[in-house]
Amino acid sequence: MYKSKKKWLLLGFLSLSFFSLYPRPIDINLERKVLQNFEGEYKIEKIISKGNLEVFPEVSVSRLLTSPELISENSLLVRYTEESRFQPLEYIFNEPILLQDFVTRMEFHVYSSSNAGEIYFLIQDSFLETHKLLLTRINFSGWKKVDVSLIKINQNDIIFNENRKIKFLGFLFIPPSKSESGREFLIAIDDIISYSLPKYKSIP
């Protein structure tokens, strides 16, 4: 009996090792889509300051600061000046970005010249509930690629095969509560990418 139990434990361990070394089919079949790259004639969208309405961070499209991992000409740049460096800021797309099928994760390329603060992004699920998801805590300087899972976001259809789309609404930037006096800092976001699977099997 002891040998039999030991044999099943060994088989279980080997199975776990195999699946950790080799990707599952779900990882191979993901569709990659660039949702926004801030290229071409991209125009700055709705900005909502959460503090002083007279002084708030500057938002622009930058050609000078782009991710080294991408072939990119533009990025979205948020510049916190000395006067605005404590102001939370919402950046809302005029037209929400519709996410196709079942989105497993989103990829962001983020730059920071600070070492504090947080960035969130806003997702509306298929039942119209808005979620504030942590993109990253700003505990780094330079560029960083960030993956955020959307598995727990409700993407179900109310009616079968309705194929409701969840919506990417925008960002929320939370600056550090303290900053060196007289010092500005920058946040930039380059390509935003989704990875998804079909909700339903296609019939040949």
Global structural class: mainly beta
Distance between the termini: 50 Å
Order of helices and strands: HHEEEEEEEEEEE
The backbone outline, from C-alpha atoms, is: globular
How many beta-strand runs?
11
Q: What is the share of helical residues?
A: 10-25%
- Count of alpha and pi helical runs: 2
The CATH architecture can be given as Sandwich
CATH superfamily: Galactose-binding domain-like
Question: Sheet with the most strands?
Answer: 6 strands, antiparallel
CATH topology: Jelly Rolls
Rounded Rg: 21 Å
On the 0 to 100 scale, the average pLDDT is 81
Give start-end ranges of low-pLDDT stretches: 1-26
Q: Briefly, what CATH class?
A: Mainly Beta
Beta-strand content bin: 35-45%
Tell me the number of structural domains.
Answer: 1
What does this structure look like?
Strand 7 and strand 8 form a beta hairpin. It is built from two helices and eleven strands, in the order H-H-E-E-E-E-E-E-E-E-E-E-E. It is 12% helix and 43% strand. The strands form two sheets. Strands 1, 3, 4, 6, 9 and 11 form a six-stranded antiparallel sheet that branches. A five-stranded antiparallel sheet has the order 2-5-10-7-8, with no helix packed on it. With 204 residues, it is mostly beta strands. Residues 1-26 have low confidence and may be disordered. It has one domain (31-197): Sandwich (Jelly Rolls). The termini are far apart.
Task: Provide a compact summary of the structure.
The chain is mostly beta strands and 204 residues long.
